[in-house]
Design brief:
This protein is mostly beta strands. It has one helix and twelve strands; from the N terminus they run αββββββββββββ. The chain folds into two domains: 45 residues, no CATH class; 97 residues, Immunoglobulins (Immunoglobulin-like).
């Protein structure tokens, strides 16, 4: 095959009859290791925060759940674990409003006298001391608990029924104490006397 150059054109190389060999090289670049989450600044901060919360949180939990009880005649302290919920404390005093008393004649000749009060701040199960009187003299005292038979906690209504002898002087019942505390207010419920035959 002949090669001819045209006049006025720059000389060119004749085309090579052999195709150049194609070479491909695969280069394997090692993958960089990613640092662990705990080795990054944000990971270190999160770890310290969690550790601080666990340390102080457990301390606060222990402080709110442990109480120390010391017996007056014993030098050793007894540690008790109590639930962390706060019990609702009863009010320090109970306010009493006396209601009217009702006397009903019984077949035996005596009278059934029902005394009523309204108690504010009392709870079911509280201890109560009552003093009963005829006229101006005290005839008996009775200690008991405010149970559902005599006390309605939702309304505070306290009712006591007694059997009394007939009198023209009238009957009375006084609440001396609730939870061993003197109540505040009108504590004496009274019923008028009757004509006895």
């Amino acid at each position: 095959m002949s090669y001819r150059q045209e006049p006025g054109q720059p000389p060119t190389q004749p085309p090579s009859e052999e195709e150049p060999e194609l070479r491909s090289e695969v280069v394997v670049v090692p993958r960089q290791q990613r640092p662990a989450v705990w080795a990054t600044p944000s990971g270190i901060f999160a770890g310290v925060l969690i550790l601080a919360l666990l340390t102080f949180g457990s301390s606060v939990a222990l402080l709110t759940r442990v109480g120390v009880v010391v017996s007056p005649d014993d030098d050793e302290a007894i540690v008790t674990v109590a639930p962390s919920r706060t019990a609702t404390a009863a009010p320090a005093t109970v306010r009493v409003t006396a209601g009217p008393a009702l006397a009903e004649r019984m077949d035996t000749g005596g009278y059934r006298v029902t005394f009523t009060w309204t108690l504010e701040g009392a709870r079911e199960g509280d201890s109560a001391l009552l003093r009963f009187g005829i006229g101006s003299r005290v005839v008996s005292e009775q200690r008991g608990a405010l149970d559902p038979n005599v006390f309605v906690a939702s309304t505070g209504r306290f009712t006591v029924t007694t059997a009394q002898e007939c009198t023209a002087d009238g009957w009375s019942a006084e609440i001396v104490s609730i939870r061993n505390l003197t109540p505040v207010g009108e504590a004496t419920s009274r019923a008028a006397g009757v004509t006895c035959r």
